[in-house]
Amino acid sequence: MTSSPLRRLGFLTIGLFDPDDPGRGHESTLEIIELGEQLGFDSAWLRHRHLQHGISSPVAVLAAATQRTSHIELGTAVTPVGWENPLRLAEDLATVDILSGGRLNPGVSIGPPMRWEDVKDALYPGTAEVEDLTYGRVERLLALVRGERASEFSGVQGIEVFSHRVEPHSPGLASRMWYGGASLRSATWAGEHGMNLLTSSVVKAEAPGDEHDFAAIQLSHIRAFRAAHPDGEQARVSQGLVVIPTDSATPEQRRRYEAYAASRLPRTASPQGPGRLMFAPDLVGTSAELAGRLQAHAAYREVAEVAFALPFTFEHADYVQILTDIAARLAPALGWSPRP
After folding, report:
1. Are 293 and 283 in contact, with CB atoms under 8 Å apart?
2. What whole-number distance in Å separates Cα of residue 320 and Cα of residue 199?
3. What distance in Å separates the CA atoms of residue 290 and residue 306, rounded to the nearest whole number?
4. Strand, helix or coil at 42?
5. What pLDDT was estimated at residue 252?
6. What pLDDT, on the 0 to 100 scale, is given for residue 207?
7. CA 177, 183, 185 angle in degrees (round to 5)?
8. What is the pLDDT of residue 2?
9. Which of 74, 161, 168, 223 has the highest CB neighbour count under 10 A?
10. How far is residue 24 from each of residues 17, 54, 74, measured CA to CA in Å?
11. Which long-range contacts (CB under 8 A, 24 or more apart) does 298-302 make?
12. Half-sphere exposure at residue 325, Cβ-oriented, CA atoms within 13 angstroms
């Protein structure tokens, strides 16, 4: 079976920075987003990294990106809502969407923040034990983004005017909300709630026999999502594997890329940890080789859009080479062409 032509091309970056010079790292991320637009990418996505040396506030960085780009879509992949107040996040998302002219694609996920026991007292002093870290937190966010009531009062008090909903309100934003799912349950939940689905290089091996076929697990999630979604087969899914073309790479870059992938390969052999997480191998090679491997990937054949993940620890020049090869060689081999 062959895949349909790739319609939407995106990339994902973590935005690492030197703690002694964080400005340079953030500027590098903005430059990469600008380059993505120049190369014709349809979307650029940022990860969250709290209390680490990666972007902790993608929404703020994307606000800056809205003023340096004109048409590339901008997303988060993903915002862990356990770190967020849904009302305040809805305000920030709507503000950035307005600034972008309707280009924001917020991706979210649930669950306790990483290293919960270490951060909960700083994050939620006195309320950590009663915070809702379930799907209910996303439901609150979705309702607020849609413009449902946030306050029992609206009207004029003195010289101030108050609204009952989050302001500004961006009418199209709700249709561009994504859920980052790695389990069958989360994929189904996202479909039932009319969200779009972000898949990545991580899934949960939940059933006996799942241990050796990442693509089959991911495929089952995509199909469960679409079966539950009101839009059915037209429901949007994006895949986010680590894909590193080497067409224009120097010999030294190729060696580093291959060493990076090899160092991460052992974790793909079996489910990892109590969550039984399965990791997809990083894909390194020429665009022709990568196109063949992707078109043989059962889950890739079910999607029409991707957000290829850039490796975490590479240099700015490496990202320029990788993005350039993706846009100029790999994506066209997958049937993609930039929108006019």
Report:
1. yes
2. 24
3. 14
4. coil
5. 98
6. 77
7. 80
8. 58
9. 74
10. 7, 12, 20
11. 298/215, 298/216, 298/218, 298/219, 299/199, 299/215, 299/218, 299/219, 299/222, 299/239, 300/3, 300/215, 300/239, 300/241, 301/1, 301/2, 301/3, 301/4, 302/3, 302/219, 302/222, 302/223, 302/237
12. 24
Pairing between β-strand 202-204 and β-strand 277-279 as defined by DSSP bridges:
antiparallel
Phi first, then psi, for residue 15 (nearest 5°) are 70, 55
Choose among 319, 259, 234: nearest CA to 4: 234
The answer to whether the CB of 280 falls within 8 A of the CB of 180 is no
What pLDDT, on the 0 to 100 scale, is given for residue 177?
98
Establish how many alpha carbons lie within 13 A of residue 65's alpha carbon, considering only the half-sphere containing its beta carbon. Answer: 32
Q: Give CA–CA dist 292/294, Å, rounded.
A: 6
257 touches 290 (CB < 8 A): no
Return d(Cα 46, Cα 49) in angstroms, integer. Answer: 10
CA distance 56 to 50: 5
Map out the domains of the chain as residue ranges.
8-333
Rounded CA gap, 323 and 183, in Å?
29
pLDDT on residue 258: 98
Query: What is the rounded CA–CA span in Å between residue 285 and residue 289?
Result: 6
Residue with tokens 């966010």: 141
**Which CATH code is given to the segment(s) 8-333?**
3.20.20.30
Instruction: Report residue 200 as tokens.
Output: 């990545």
**pLDDT at res. 327:** 98
Q: Where are the beta strands (DSSP E) in the chain?
A: 8-13, 43-46, 73-80, 104-109, 155-157, 160-162, 178-180, 196-200, 202-204, 237-240, 243-245, 277-279, 283-285, 305-309
Residues of the chain with pLDDT under 70: 1-2, 210-211
Helix H or strand E encompassing 288: helix 287-295
**Per-residue pLDDT, 100:** 98
